[in-house]
Amino acid sequence: MLLVALRILFFRLLVAVPTLIAVSALVFVILRLLPADPAAMSLPPGATAEDLARLRAALGLDRSIPEQYLIWLGDLLSGDFGISIYFRRPVADLVSTALPNTLELVLSGLLLGVIVGVAGGLLMFRARGGRGEEALDVVSSAMMSIPEFLWALLLILAFGVAVPLLPFIGRMAPGMMTPPGVTGFLLLDSLIAGRLDVFFSLLLHLVLPAVALAIALAPLIMRVLRASLVEVAGDDFVTQARLRGLSEQRILFAHTLPNAALPTISLIGVQAGFMFGGTVLVEVIFGYPGLGNLIVDAVRNHDLPVIQLVALVYCVLVLAINAAVEVIYLLVNPRLRTH
């Protein structure tokens, strides 16, 4: 199994290289074709035409688009990600600070959504044919009809304004000192530093945005898992297991669920990639300092170096998720290990 997993990862790495080049070229060209001029936007109102020409030359914007792309790609391969036009800071520093926050949010929302979705799918399967399934079906349909950003607003109104139980702005309470950076992930760094006050503050600020992402994911998992379980429950091996006298609970968890899990795993992998896009509005609504907030500020100010690197990071994350899903497939379905 290890050799098969390594082969899949190696193949994914080979596919990732042209994919990243294609995505980077597409984003680069589209940004250069937009009518906004990042050099003009970064100059003060009293700047002259000579000042604009000098800045455009310094940023390389006076060259042709193919030439600009080759220069940028060469710098990228050498580890130079450029300087932000708006923030006046290295782009690598901005992304490396925001990326762990977004990963914490996505992983929290994904974990919560999977737990709720799997539990709901199992409940729908056990209650099939009855009033319970109908009630859960109505609830899941209602949850699916509301997007992440609207859930974020509803959660703020409910638990931040009407009943102020949880904080809903920022990453942690004002006045708290950020723990020393060891891993870059604030939750882990606060535990390593022994700052439990910071840890619980971070956790409380993470609850509402994570729940907003999880609520949008959970009903999809519920419905797909329920449908897969119903389909597998009619197979011969389930009937044979029942004839051998196995309990319904053991049949469900030892036989039906593992064989019905593949479509759900595939769905989770796809939705995990979409979830990174869904964090953009959620982070803006909650004032959460992640990649979503960073790219919104970059787009607003036409900060090309930041937009280009963040788009590339999103692409890498989606490719990594796809590779991880294929490896999980191997662990869940032994029949794929021989291919």
UniProtKB/TrEMBL annotation:
<dbReference type="GO" id="GO:0055085">
    <property type="term" value="P:transmembrane transport"/>
</dbReference>
<keyword id="KW-0812">Transmembrane</keyword>
<dbReference type="InterPro" id="IPR000515">
    <property type="entry name" value="MetI-like"/>
</dbReference>
<dbReference type="InterPro" id="IPR045621">
    <property type="entry name" value="BPD_transp_1_N"/>
</dbReference>
<dbReference type="GO" id="GO:0005886">
    <property type="term" value="C:plasma membrane"/>
</dbReference>
<feature type="transmembrane region" description="Helical">
    <location>
        <begin position="9"/>
        <end position="34"/>
    </location>
</feature>
<feature type="transmembrane region" description="Helical">
    <location>
        <begin position="149"/>
        <end position="169"/>
    </location>
</feature>
<keyword id="KW-1003">Cell membrane</keyword>
<feature type="transmembrane region" description="Helical">
    <location>
        <begin position="198"/>
        <end position="221"/>
    </location>
</feature>
<comment type="similarity">
    <text>Belongs to the binding-protein-dependent transport system permease family.</text>
</comment>
<keyword id="KW-0472">Membrane</keyword>
<dbReference type="Pfam" id="PF19300">
    <property type="entry name" value="BPD_transp_1_N"/>
</dbReference>
<feature type="domain" description="ABC transmembrane type-1">
    <location>
        <begin position="99"/>
        <end position="325"/>
    </location>
</feature>
<dbReference type="InterPro" id="IPR035906">
    <property type="entry name" value="MetI-like_sf"/>
</dbReference>
<keyword id="KW-1133">Transmembrane helix</keyword>
<feature type="transmembrane region" description="Helical">
    <location>
        <begin position="306"/>
        <end position="332"/>
    </location>
</feature>
<feature type="transmembrane region" description="Helical">
    <location>
        <begin position="260"/>
        <end position="286"/>
    </location>
</feature>
<protein>
    <submittedName>
        <fullName>ABC transporter permease</fullName>
    </submittedName>
</protein>
<dbReference type="Pfam" id="PF00528">
    <property type="entry name" value="BPD_transp_1"/>
</dbReference>
<keyword id="KW-0813">Transport</keyword>
<feature type="transmembrane region" description="Helical">
    <location>
        <begin position="105"/>
        <end position="125"/>
    </location>
</feature>
